[in-house]
């Protein structure tokens, strides 16, 4: 009798450590932040809960440019990432032979260096005196008004660079799982290489692309390091605004409200995306 | 299209002329490069498979049978030689342009497509009309007894059903030849036997040439019109199942197909087409020999275990016209329908004997018993020459 009770309790006991962790470090901060976003006051006199919804309205109207810009940067970076990562993943999966893990390791190697340091080095590479712009200027290919650093190109470039492995790895895993005989079967059934790719390989890799998009679009849209280090006033992303409101202006309600707005927008976006191209449906769509 | 043809002796015709083999290999060989060394996978092979034939490539793993099939399918290009399909040189034609289809080991169904889409894949690539695709897919699904399963995805089907989808997916294209790569390997015994009969029926119904790759000699014997037994990249013997079983051309074939007892010896005398090998005064093997065999020649003789009679006492005079070997029983295994004995014989070799469990069940020998093995002259077979 006692044993049975124990066995029934076991799953709950197992979930307890993770559950407590989530409660303390996710649920509590979320609630705190929600309450913070509805408070009024200032850092000197302290904040009081007043249920002030106006903060949300003000935050959205003041920073809608940055919100939209962040989503666009995130989306553009994600599309470029798919275009860059797919061939790399494809090549490693199908032509990597015995050295597959070496190639994957090489891909990940730069990422052993800290995120911020890497981005700063990118800044130096793209600077006007750096190894990219200065030779172009000296041979007269571009004028003195040409810059890369501080433009949206630099920010999106930085995002693409920093999130590349998060797109390559899931696509690689999906491609790696394709049975080579399935590819041969397509060839056997009169499909030329292009059709084989379109009708068999790509549809089977879609779950990987789906995962890659989730893993890159969400953090890229809310990133603040790339726009801070590689951008300028004209490329400010919403992550940067939130960071400044918290740490510089100590405007906790606005920062919290913006965090919630960003979260809501991303959640809705991801939800719509999943509904549109859920893994199961991804395959059916591709089959047509 | 005017492709430069290498030594095409045959005219290009749309319909194969009567007597043109469905598949033909002329001096085909295939080498692989492994760590800078050339490894022969298939040695120089000439082969002709007739229209409508059920042809098996049989051999142990690594014997070259799969490579041979892949050269027919177009997945491997021969290092040298020419491959003909219906008399046309297809040596350098890629797989998607060859009129043969394959049933893959473990089926290789498209996991993202349902049964209908899997089966229709080939016809869609050939730009067949929608209505015709529908009709032909329906027809073939009926032949493989899968009507009503059109919407199922491969994941939702049993191994046997997936197997049928794979078969339908290939057959629906009405290929010149169907290639089957160990298609029953993943099924359990009952289902495998059922599918063997089914495959044979389907082949009769559609009348397409089947090339069947297997390492299972039982499967090959039951289904094939002809079998090519391969070993180390060479076809050791090509013939009907009966020929291969009764008259193995090599020691390898004798051992690989069923169970064989093989004894070595020198021919002592040749008399009336029969050679005599003696081991002791009473122990002797009588074997039909070819004219070229002279006394003193070294030969190998194969005897099937079911042809041998086992006697506990000195054998009756009627049996002594043939071979007699005395020995000691070292193992007795009861199998229900038969009892299998292992006997250490005076000829030096251990013999396996299958004794049908008929009425005289009390006539069982035990381990350690002294026994006599006898068999008629025509049941000895001289291997190779």
TrEMBL record, chain A:
Location of the protein in the cell: Cell membrane
Q: Does the keyword Cell membrane apply?
A: yes
Q: Which residues are listed as membrane-spanning?
A: 12-36, 71-92, 104-126, 146-175, 196-218, 255-274
Q: Keywords for this entry? A: Cell membrane, Membrane, Transmembrane, Transmembrane helix, Transport
Q: Name one GO biological process term.
A: transmembrane transport
Membrane topology is: Multi-pass membrane protein
Q: Which family does it belong to?
A: Belongs to the binding-protein-dependent transport system permease family. CysTW subfamily.
| Protein name from the UniProt record | Spermidine/putrescine transport system permease protein
Automatic annotation (TrEMBL), chain B:
Leader sequence segment:
none
Q: Give residue ranges for domain ABC transporter.
A: 23-257
Role according to the record:
Part of the ABC transporter complex PotABCD involved in spermidine/putrescine import. Responsible for energy coupling to the transport system.
**What InterPro entries does its record include?**
AAA+_ATPase, ABC_SmlMolc_Importer, ABC_transporter-like_ATP-bd, ABC_transporter-like_CS, Mo/tungstate-bd_C_term_dom, P-loop_NTPase, PotA-like, PotA_ATP-bd
Describe the subunit structure. Answer: The complex is composed of two ATP-binding proteins (PotA), two transmembrane proteins (PotB and PotC) and a solute-binding protein (PotD).
Q: Which reaction does it catalyse?
A: ATP + H2O + polyamine-[polyamine-binding protein]Side 1 = ADP + phosphate + polyamineSide 2 + [polyamine-binding protein]Side 1
This chain belongs to the protein called: Spermidine/putrescine import ATP-binding protein PotA
E.C. number? 7.6.2.11
Keywords, sorted A to Z: ATP-binding, Cell membrane, Membrane, Nucleotide-binding, Translocase, Transport
Q: Which family does it belong to?
A: Belongs to the ABC transporter superfamily. Spermidine/putrescine importer (TC 3.A.1.11.1) family.
CDD domains cross-referenced by the UniProt entry: ABC_PotA_N (cd03300)
The domain of life for this entry's organism is: Bacteria
A single GO CC term for this protein reads: ATP-binding cassette (ABC) transporter complex
The molecular function terms in GO held by this entry are: ABC-type putrescine transporter activity; ATP binding; ATP hydrolysis activity
Report the gene name: potA
Which organism is this protein's natural source?
Paractinoplanes atraurantiacus
């Amino acid at each position: 009798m006692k044993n049975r009770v124990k066995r029934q309790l076991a799953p709950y006991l197992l979930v307890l450590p993770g559950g407590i962790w989530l409660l303390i470090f996710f649920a509590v901060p979320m609630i705190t932040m929600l309450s913070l976003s509805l408070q009024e006051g200032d850092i000197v006199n302290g904040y009081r809960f007043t249920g002030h919804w106006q903060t949300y309205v003000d935050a959205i109207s003041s920073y809608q440019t940055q919100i939209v810009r962040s989503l666009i940067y995130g989306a553009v970076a994600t599309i470029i990432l798919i275009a860059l990562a797919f061939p790399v993943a494809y090549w490693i999966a199908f032509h990597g032979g015995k050295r597959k893990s070496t190639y994957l390791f090489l891909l990940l190697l730069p990422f052993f260096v800290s995120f911020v340091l890497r981005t700063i080095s990118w800044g130096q590479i793209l600077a006007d005196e750096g190894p990219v712009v200065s030779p172009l200027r000296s041979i007269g290919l571009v004028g003195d008004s040409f810059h890369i650093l501080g433009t949206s190109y630099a920010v999106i470039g930085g995002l693409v660079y920093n999130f590349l492995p998060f797109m390559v790895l899931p696509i690689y895993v999906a491609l790696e799982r394709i049975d080579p005989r399935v590819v041969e079967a397509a060839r056997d059934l009169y499909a030329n290489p292009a059709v084989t790719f379109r009708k068999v390989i790509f549809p089977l890799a879609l779950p990987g692309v789906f995962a890659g998009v989730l893993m890159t679009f969400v953090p890229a849209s809310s990133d603040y390091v790339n726009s801070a280090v590689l951008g300028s006033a004209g490329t400010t992303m919403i992550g940067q605004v939130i960071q400044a409101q918290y740490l510089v202006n100590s405007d906790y309600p606005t920062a919290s409200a913006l965090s919630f707005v960003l979260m809501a927008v991303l959640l809705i976006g991801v939800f719509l995306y999943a509904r549109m191209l859920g893994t199961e449906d991804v395959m059916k769509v591709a089959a047509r | 299209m005017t492709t430069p043809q290498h030594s095409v002796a045959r005219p290009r015709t749309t319909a194969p002329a009567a007597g043109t083999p469905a598949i033909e290999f002329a001096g085909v060989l295939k080498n692989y490069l492994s760590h800078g060394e050339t490894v022969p996978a298939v040695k120089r092979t000439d082969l002709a498979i007739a229209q409508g034939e059920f042809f098996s490539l049989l051999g142990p793993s690594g014997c070259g049978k799969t490579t041979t099939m892949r050269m027919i399918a177009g997945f491997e290009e021969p290092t040298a030689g020419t491959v003909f399909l219906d008399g046309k040189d297809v040596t350098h034609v890629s797989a998607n342009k060859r009129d043969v289809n394959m049933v893959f080991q473990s089926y290789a169904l498209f996991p993202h497509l349902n049964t209908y889409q899997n089966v229709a894949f080939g016809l869609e690539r050939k730009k067949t009309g929608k209505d015709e695709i529908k009709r032909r897919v329906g027809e073939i699904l009926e032949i493989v007894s899968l009507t009503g399963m059109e919407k199922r995805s491969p994941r939702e089907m049993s191994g046997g059903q997936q197997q049928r989808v794979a078969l339908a997916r290939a057959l629906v294209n009405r290929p010149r030849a169907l290639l089957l790569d160990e298609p029953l390997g993943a099924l359990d015994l009952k289902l495998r036997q059922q599918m063997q009969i089914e495959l044979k029926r389907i082949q009769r119904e559609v009348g397409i040439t089947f090339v069947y790759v297997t390492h299972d000699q039982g499967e090959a014997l039951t289904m094939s019109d002809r079998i090519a037994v391969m070993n180390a990249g060479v076809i050791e013997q090509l013939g009907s199942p009966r020929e291969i079983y009764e008259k193995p051309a090599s020691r390898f074939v004798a051992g690989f197909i069923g169970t064989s007892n093989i004894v070595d010896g020198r021919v002592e005398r040749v008399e009336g087409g029969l050679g005599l090998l003696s081991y002791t005064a009473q122990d002797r093997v009588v074997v039909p020999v070819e004219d070229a065999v002279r006394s003193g020649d070294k030969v190998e003789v194969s005897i099937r275990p079911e042809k041998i009679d086992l006697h506990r006492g000195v054998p009756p005079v009627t049996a002594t016209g043939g071979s007699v070997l005395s020995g000691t029983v070292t193992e007795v295994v009861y199998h229900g329908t038969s009892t299998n004995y292992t006997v250490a014989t005076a000829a030096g070799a251990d013999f396996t004997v299958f004794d049908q469990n008929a009425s005289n069940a009390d006539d069982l020998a035990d381990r350690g018993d002294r026994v006599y093995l006898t068999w008629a002259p025509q049941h000895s077979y001289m291997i190779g020459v």
